[in-house]
Amino acid sequence: MSPQTAERLKSQAPIRFLLTFDDGPAAPRTDNPTLSILTTLAHNPLQPGVKALFFVQTRSSDAGETEFGRNILRREADEGHLLGFHSATPHHANHRFLSPEIFEQSLNDGIADIVSIQGSPPKLVRPPFWNYDKRTFAAYQQRGMHILLTDLSANDGKIYGIKGSLRRRSNMLHLLTAVRERIAAGELPAVDGSIPVVVSFHDINSYTADHMAEYLQILMDCARAVQLPTASKAFYDDKAALERAALARSVGDGTQAVHLPGLWNWLWE
């Protein structure tokens, strides 16, 4: 770290990790990854009772559309987690490529599904494949939903192909080092006395579920390694505070330049 960065960080608030999960609920009836993650968030040695933001697929085949899947979503809400919108189509469809009619209907369906579960409409959305344009951005905004992207992303795959990462620690360290420079430059806002750092996972991934407690420790270790102090509670433990932080980090303008994880910037250029 350069002396200039170190000096600038002195005037910045501590960080707080805002955990987000995409694509759930998971479908398996046994050893369900989403349920495993919920248990780890509630009971872990670092900070029991961690609350997270789940971007859910309310009508995914064999998962969100089923009573089993809906019960998982109810458990998320009952345990104080926040539900955001991801999709309400049978499959993980890119919103940009849906017909206007199907896209609009999926938004209405997904919002209604989430209202029926958590009692309030979602204020946050993460588009499938991190992809949106002026039209889809405007449609989200018209329904009171704000896009939340990410600062850190676990690079351990999702369902098909490779599910795992031998670089889970070095990946987080690399990404958090870049975040440190943005914090030093004053680019990230403080909310309730700390700077929210958004972390994304996929709760349908069994590897993620099996390593969730380790991921929490990795985040803490990486914060120390890059000399970013954390808040007294490094993870959010209150849904209202979590939502305020997420809204503060949301994309305010559909035309603004954003940084997407992995190869997605290159793919959607």
From TrEMBL:
GO terms for molecular function: hydrolase activity, acting on carbon-nitrogen (but not peptide) bonds. InterPro entries: Glyco_hydro/deAcase_b/a-brl, NODB_dom, Polysacc_deacetylase_ArnD. It comes from the Bacteria. GO terms for biological process: carbohydrate metabolic process. Residues 15-269 form the NodB homology domain. This is Polysaccharide deacetylase family protein. The lineage of its organism: Bacteria, Pseudomonadati, Pseudomonadota, Betaproteobacteria, Burkholderiales.
